[in-house]
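Translate sequence into structure tokens.
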Amino acid sequence: MPRPQVDFEKVLENEGVPTTKEGVAALLDADVVAANSIISNDSAMSPFWRLFSACVVTPVLWLIKTLLANHVLPAMFAATATEFYLELKAWDVGLERKPAVKTQGNIGFTKTDINSDVVVEAGTVVQTDKSLGAIYRLLVLADTIIPAGTLSAKVLCEADVAGAGHNLGAGYYHVLPIAITGIDSVTNVGEWITQTGADKETDDELALRIRDQFSSVGNYHIDAVYRAAISSFAGIRSDWLYFEHEAPRGPGTANCHVMMGVGETPQSMIDDINNYISTQGNHGHGDDLRAMAIAAAPVDLSLEFWHAANLSVDEIATLQGEIESRVRAAFRESDMHSLLTRTKPQSVFAFSVLNGELHRDLPNLKSVRWANNDIVIGLELPRINSLIITNRGVA
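Result follows.
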């Protein structure tokens, strides 16, 4: 549920607080009359009245419209506070804003000759191609020797910048921009992430955690308690947790399905969450809650598009790449194109909405036709199994 958008100036106005120059002047004039003092030269052209307005009315309006309506009142509530004010609200309930974190993970390096020693130097760059609409880079953290007799080895790498965007699925990191002598290929395979990257927690995300913290102060181990505990991990938002209460392993059991903003939920994170809840004893009496990655629902996507006339071959290729980038972002394969509607569990993914967003962003795109029907989603998340994009020419 989004945070409320409150017009505090309108609230003040409804409570009788003047928010216009005329209103403040009328209120002050009434006070003057009540004090048995009469101002006769209150014409708008009067030098006295202009001085009176500058010295009294203008500062009062600033106090009401700027200080009170835009700062003091919004800062009083977790629902409307922002930035430093919201961090003070978080401190009230023992929380801090989560910082940005760099993705770390193991990249597989495969040699051309199994019988040679190869050194992969710290700082070596492994990156994606351009299919997502941007290039994501990882850097090798330490000099690593792949000895003779070993064909391939996993090398620990870290994202060049912090953020969730580098938590990409298997196979995306496969490019060596600068070739390494003796290395044939690189790739990220399977459960490659050892530290999940995360963006700095936004105001909306922090406000949700503050609300959950208020719900959990009684230490009853209901959803709010577990939601507050699990969302404290970097990269997890409280509204990306989906609970299954139907006693999946018998009475007193429940599952929490964890979703990430980009890519699949790493098993290393699931292990950390379950260790915190179960092994470290952060659960209620008789509770058996188990965290797990949100299940994937593979989808084969196929779309045809028609473009504007008089486009060059390169412009058509660029348009097709922009379409692919946005489709993959909508299915949570990247953090590009933040205004796109993303897939989420327990909802309906409507391709008509995606079509509208494609037309909004791509003026040279004239028509789109999908072979797919809208996706009705349960307790799982659609993942692209295959994606076919066909150019049908000029509309």
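Note: The chain is about 30% helix and 25% strand.
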